[in-house]
Amino acid sequence: MSQQDNLALVLACGELKLEKRPVPELCPGDVLVKVSFVGICGTDIHLWLDGKIGDIVVKKPMILGHEVSGTIAKVSCGVTHLKAGDKVSIEPSVPRENDDFVRIGRYNLSPTSFTTGIPPDDGAMCRYYVHKANYCFKLPECVSLEEGALVEPLSIALHACHRGRVKVGQKVFICGAGPIGLMNLLVCKAIGVTLIVVCDLCQDRLEKAKCLGATVVLKVDKCTCPMELAQKVKTSLCAMPDVCIDCTGADTCIQASVYAVKPGGIVVLVGMGVNTSNIPVLYATIREVDIRGSFKCTNTWPTAIALIASKKVDVKPLISHRFPLEQALEAFDVVKKGAGIKVLVNCEAQQCPSLCPQSQCSQPQSQCQTRQCPQHSFF
């Protein structure tokens, strides 16, 4: 393999561009992955448009992408559980040292961890990518490579539900019907939550949430009063939710979650919003509401893969668009505009004319216009 084999999507100075990169070398314990699919995440959009997310800043050109599946192309010395040809899903966060967080099983909090596609570390939206073998998980035959790319957002939801101590028979309020909100909905359904309310700004996404099993969906707007939203949640459930999961990072949703949750309940903050937020702390204090952060995930990959393999969770309906790597800039524009749900970039070399990116359309891109194609229903 030469440099010409490794096309990559690179973010530099706020611009996205396709570049040829050298195929990375293997170190002991590494595997070389021929990348198949990479999902575009809200984090990727923040890094592109804002140059940062929180206090994580893009300081040098980097490859994006951390929702990854692929096929093992080569293994290094010492790797025995994987071989060339194995289909894998990649867990992006890898501890660099055995610190206190790693020892207690919370390696997602290790300050020195490597994370695929998060500055300063390169991501995997390229043809070939090197990763630690112990953080590459073999996919069963019944799990496709497309599904393998969605193990990462499913894992984010699993971790959030774990942080919220979500249990069978509970009532849950989910803020946001984007990919992470919908993944939390799917996990709650798999756990056995009886009643789930989902709110969002977008009616199309709420329709998707309803199709995936939400009990009630609530349309909100930027002028929605948090206390009014909380009251609507209580009314729709005929009770207060046991757990509220915010996947937006918006003040309105965080406040509404605190107002809505039952005394002694849990509010989980998943969405990456602004650095500071106006939270009704006194209201939370006198009702002993637990407010918990949820950051990345830890020890979730085997469970996520098992849920998909067993059909307990079906992630395929979340895929709305597919683009070849050569059209990755168009893919990012689709996500930027808020169209669809989960956009996948196919990083394998294309052997035929590019197909229309919509999930159900098989027409060549040159013969299809989004508004004209009869099969272009995102939902």
Structure commentary:
- The protein is of the alpha/beta class and 379 residues long.
- It folds into two domains: 180 residues, Quinone Oxidoreductase, Chain A, domain 1, CATH 3.90.180.10; 135 residues, 3-Layer(aba) Sandwich (Rossmann fold).
- Helices cover 26% and strands 24% of the residues.
- It has eleven helices and 20 strands.
- The strands form five sheets. Strands 3, 7, 8, 11, 12, 19 and 20 form a seven-stranded mixed β-sheet that branches. A six-stranded parallel β-sheet has the order 15-14-13-16-17-18, with helices on both faces.
- The chain is globular and about 55 Å long.
- The chain starts with 6 loop residues before the first strand and ends in a 33-residue tail after the last strand.
List the helices and strands and how they pair.
Blueprint: E1 7-12, E2 15-20, E3 30-39, H1 42-50, E4 52-53, E5 56-57, E6 62-63, E7 67-75, E8 87-90, E9 93-94, H2 100-103, E10 114-115, E11 128-132, E12 136-138, H3 145-149, H4 151-163, E13 171-175, H5 179-191, E14 195-200, H6 203-211, E15 216-219, H7 226-237, E16 243-246, H8 251-260, E17 266-269, H9 281-286, E18 290-293, H10 301-309, E19 319-324, H11 328-336, E20 342-346
Parallel strand pairs: 13-14, 13-16, 14-15, 16-17, 17-18, 19-20
Antiparallel strand pairs: 1-2, 1-6, 3-7, 3-11, 3-20, 4-5, 7-8, 8-12, 9-10
Helix pairs in contact: 4-5, 4-10, 7-8
